[in-house]
Structures are given as C-alpha cells and as structure tokens.
C-alpha cells in the first residue's frame, strides 16, 4: 500500500515532534529544512494536524508547534485515515473490463487491505518511537536534536 505524500509528511511531523521536548515549540522552517518539505505544502499539513488537535500551535514571535500529549495514544490507522482518501487498492466498478465477474483480484486485494488496516489499528503513535535511550540518542544526533 502506497501512502500519499501528505500522509507520509504528517506522520513524519508527528514523530519528529514527539522526539522533541514536549515543552519546546518547533518552527515550521526547521521541519521544512530537516525533511526537505516545501514550506507551503507543510503549512497545509500543519493546519490539518492542528484542526484535528494532533498538535498545538502558537502564533506570533516565539511561536511554533508541538505535539498534543493525547496524540501519542492515537493508533496509526486513525491518523492515516484523516489524510488518505481510501485504503482500497483497486476499484473495478465503473470500468468496462472483459474479465469482470470472473476475476477475484478485487476481493483478494480487499482482504489484504483489511489486514493492512488491522495492523495499523494495533499500533499507536508512541509505538513507533525508539524504545531505549541508545536508539533515542542515535536518532537525536542524526536529527541535530542534541
């Protein structure tokens, strides 16, 4: 299953913000540079994350964003479904296909998609974070957080 770019960036932003101190506000420009995301595109993603109350925003001088503490308890499917229009792999309706009615591909892919979403529902945002301090130090160093 291929995620759209908006979903990919939204997840990266949330993970990055959870790795930062929960008290520190992060500037959009910092995220834009670290992940090489066009600022205009990032602004739209940040606005949606804020509307969903996954992040906290503070405007003005000294402002920025940080992850909402409750966001750590969200399952990955819940987050991703806000940015993906569908998790359906293939749609055979509305096309003139000579093997329609004989082919079972759509049903098989629907089953696979169900398994995919089931796994995503098992894991929370906090589950994708490093589990030990050594892993955390390596990530922090690579992201210039320390």
UniProtKB/TrEMBL annotation:
Transmembrane segments: none annotated. SUPFAM superfamilies: Winged helix' DNA-binding domain. One of its GO terms (cellular component) is cytosol. One of its GO terms (molecular function) is DNA binding. PANTHER family: HTH-TYPE TRANSCRIPTIONAL REPRESSOR NSRR, WINGED HELIX-TURN-HELIX TRANSCRIPTIONAL REGULATOR, RRF2 FAMILY. It comes from Francisella adeliensis. Pfam families: Rrf2. This is Rrf2 family transcriptional regulator. Gene3D superfamilies: Winged helix-like DNA-binding domain superfamily/Winged helix DNA-binding domain. Keywords: DNA-binding.
């Amino acid at each position: 299953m291929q995620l759209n770019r908006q979903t990919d960036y939204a997840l990266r932003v949330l993970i990055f913000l959870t790795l930062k101190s929960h008290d520190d506000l992060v500037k959009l420009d910092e995220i834009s540079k670290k992940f090489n995301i066009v600022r205009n595109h990032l602004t739209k993603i940040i606005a949606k994350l804020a509307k969903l109350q996954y992040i906290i925003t503070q405007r003005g001088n000294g402002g920025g964003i940080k992850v909402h503490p409750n966001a750590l308890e969200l399952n990955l499917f819940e987050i991703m479904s806000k940015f993906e229009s569908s998790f359906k792999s293939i749609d055979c309706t509305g096309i003139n296909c000579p093997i329609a009615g004989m082919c079972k591909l759509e049903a098989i892919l629907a089953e696979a998609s169900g398994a995919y979403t089931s796994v995503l529902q098992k894991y929370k945002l906090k589950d994708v974070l490093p589990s030990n301090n050594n892993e955390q130090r390596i990530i922090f160093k690579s992201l210039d957080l320390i």
